[in-house]
Amino acid sequence: MTIATDFRACKTCGVRLIVPVSGPPLDYYPDPYGTVAARHLATGAWTARRLQQQEQPVPPEKRYAVHQCDSTGDAP
Length: 76
Fold this sequence. Notes:
76 residues; mainly beta
C-alpha cells in the first residue's frame, strides 16, 4: 500500500496525476478498467494498492489506471 502526497501534471503530456510516495503515478480520474484501487483520506493523503485479477475495489476505494504517457519522453 502506498500513500500519495500530492497531485501534479505529467511533464510530457500534461495529464493531471495522483503521485504516490512509492510506485507509479496514477491518472487523476477514476478508470473502470484500471488495475489500482485508491482512496482519498480525510488527511488529504491517498492510499493505493494493486488489484488482483477479478478483484474489486472495496468502498470507498475507486479504480484508477497507472499513468502511461502516450508522448515520447519520460512521464512525471
